[in-house]
């Protein structure tokens, strides 16, 4: 299977997950708005979800996959299986110990996560309860992430990428049940939290079955710190911090935002919108690119590695820049149509739109980190990007503390965007200075043209939203509002692709060749 086809396969599965996740957020917005229960749920869910992102998209994708892939390529399946079993034993013991500690220390952790909640004892107590219900989800998702890493190393990408769909299907079903039985407030929050835990069980079962389908199964061994496990731990800690830089910055933003009622929920709703393109493009690239780079570098195909990374960059720019243009051009329309109903008030919609517009400026950076980080991790260098992540986090904290009192949620979004671009500049310049990556002529030629086509798309969307505004007002039926918005975005998308082709930002023949082309090392 070609590199681009793998991107599209993972991106398609992730798109299904993100669309369903978006439907879930719409239901939560209508049911809970930006009230205390929504704040409590999102604050409680942020911690296990942070670790899910760190493990699924960070440590295990960036540290485990290269080590497992090299054993698979160099020593065979049996050696790779033994390595995976050793890792599983240590991982499970660590997670169980961590869970026990966290259950005892939950009040302290919630105080750190959301210090502003201490002023509202009811919200604080609810957050503690929901936190304890959902935290075991971390254990389930960490195990899921490990099996996912095995599947990715065997070039099985679709099923692991599809597993998060189960989280959204389960939580949507739970929300539907609360509406059916007329539940309100805290009852909704508790049912939603239990559904998250149930989804974790289903996701783990799904990837285990997928692994067995390719003949892979592992036994539970006695935990041992073998040389391979020690090497993984040495790489995993900085890889987790680096791979989850966006989530760490969101985490910091939540802590600061907890001092204002409703701010956590507003940031979550804006986050959900820009996470749609980030997940579809960024995660697809991060999941596929690392195993491919690891294989080509292991075979000492250095020119091939540079080519693979340049094609990932081109793919990211072509899909991310127009998405960013849309978020910047019409955030008010997007938020109003998709969220503004029920408990979601107009002032909440305005605040969410302001934050979303700023996130749009940071979206390309959040995606490009998935392109440049594998250039380090495939070479087993996790310390350099960790240092850059630390600098980005320092930038984020400084700016968030300075801007939140002035611009509220938009200030936190601005801090995260600037931190993201800081990280990208450091990653890119260091890769080039070390000679590990050079931009090729195709990217140099098409990059500015992709930017021009994206700006044109933004102008089309802005004009179209202004012209069609009477049909998308809050008083209109949702199906009409959504239909008009969907039609506008679809038409703008067609215009973008046509204009991009016209000015040479894309090449149909080149794309067809990429779709046919197999990366180094063959395919399965």
How would you describe this protein?
With 524 residues, this protein is mostly helical. The chain has helices at 3-32, 36-74, 77-113, 121-134, 137-153, 158-162, 165-180, 186-213, 227-243, 245-257, 263-298, 302-329, 331-339, 346-377, 383-407, 409-434, 441-467, 478-502, 508-516. α11 (263-298) packs antiparallel against α12 (302-329) and α12 (302-329) runs antiparallel to α14. The chain is globular and about 65 Å long. It starts with a helix and ends in an 8-residue tail after the last helix. 53% of the residues are buried. The model is unreliable at 512-524 (pLDDT under 50).
Element pattern in H and E? HHHHHHHHHHHHHHHHHHH
Structural class, by secondary structure, is mainly alpha
Please state roughly what percent of the residues sit in beta strands, choosing from under 5%, 5-15%, 15-25%, 25-35%, 35-45% or over 45%.
under 5%
Proportion of helical residues: over 70%
Approximate shape: globular
Instruction: Give the count of helical stretches.
Output: 19
Tell me the count of domains.
1
Distance between the ends:
7 Å
Number of beta-strand segments: 0
Uncertain spans: 512-524
Radius of gyration: 22 Å
What's the overall average pLDDT, rounded? 81
Largest sheet: none
Features:
disordered C terminus; 524 residues
